[in-house]
Amino acid sequence: MPRDNMASLIQRVARQAGLTFRSPAGPAFGENLHRLQQLLDEVRAEDLHLAPRGPSAAAAAAGGGPPWAGVVPPVSYMHICETENFSMGVFLLRSGACIPLHDHPGMNGMLKVLYGTLRIACMDTLPAGAAAAPPPPAAGSGPCLRALFRSRQHYTPASPPCLLSPHTDNLHQIDAVDGPAAFLDILAPPYDPQHGRDCHYYRLLEGPPAGAEPPALPREVWLVETPQAADFWCGGEPYPGPRVYL
After folding, report:
1. Among residues 20, 78, 114, 211, which one has the fewest Cβ atoms lying within 10 Å of its Cβ?
2. 212-229 per-position pLDDT tens digit
3. β-pairing, 219-226 with 171-188?
4. Looking at the domain assignment, is residue 58 inside a domain?
């Protein structure tokens, strides 16, 4: 059964997010961020009236036009709230779904797994001119970035929130493994192409590892910017949890 304080919990998360990201350069940012992490770590699927499943048929209607019309998407999004300083919502992934490698320009972010298991690969972009060698010929025509591949870890509801900042772990890829998964997501500030915060997708420029084990991390890699993958799109569906007031 949901806990008695479920409404106050998600409300407190939203209020703390508003307080934290109102002044991300202020002296109290670190303390406020830590408090937000603590609150986010308490959230469970039942607090948001969610049971383990992937995107629903309702998300197919909101997935866009052809060729996706009527097709249940691999990923769907439940909008909870948004201000000029942050957005909050829930992503649902079907088993095996992947949110491709993408960036969050100038943004902070936090995600908390609500059910299932996610494999999250995190990277940092490196300054222009930091590369010791030119990009490989396989780069093609897309813009290339040198990046630091920092980590690839599994996250479950027992894991602490996964964090990103403008300079650390700002690029990530998210895969649902061994069943459907969902996570609560906070981005600050929200994506906004008019203010230079558009989402860019990337592909790792390296082949499969020659041995049984992948190369050790962290390591420097080349990325190439790509269009959104043809087999990835995100539908929308109603958020069933307690309403948030800001």
Report:
1. 211
2. 566 789 999 999 999 999
3. unpaired
4. no
Q: Determine which of 25-29, 31-35, 111-115 has the lowest per-residue pLDDT on average.
A: 25-29
What is the rounded distance in angstroms from the CA atom of residue 194 to the CA atom of residue 111?
A: 25
Which of 8, 84, 74 shows the shortest CA–CA distance to 241?
Answer: 8
What gap in Å lies between CA 198 and CA 187, rounded to an integer? 13
113 with 178: CB under 8 angstroms?
Answer: no
Instruction: Specify if 184 maps to a domain.
Output: yes
Using the structure block, give the residue that is written with the tokens 């020659």.
Answer: 210
Positive/negative CA dihedral, 21, 24, 28, 30? positive
- For residue 165, the SS3 value is coil
64 lies in some domain: no
- What letter does residue 192 receive in the DSSP assignment? B
Q: Is residue 68 part of a domain?
A: no
Q: What CATH number should be reported for the domain holding residue 180?
A: 2.60.120.10
Residue type, 134: P
Task: Select from 208, 113, 184, 124 the least CA-distant residue to 154.
Answer: 113
Q: What's the structural domain count of the chain?
A: 1
Number of Cβ within a 10 Å radius of residue 17: 28
For the chain, give the mean pLDDT.
Answer: 88
Q: Higher model confidence: residue 22 or residue 133?
A: 22
Residues 6 or more apart whose Cβ sits within 8 Å of residue 108: 21, 24, 33, 163, 164, 165, 166, 187, 188
CA distances from 6 to 2, 12, 37, 85, 168 (A): 7, 10, 17, 24, 31
CA dist 246 and 244 (Å) reads: 7
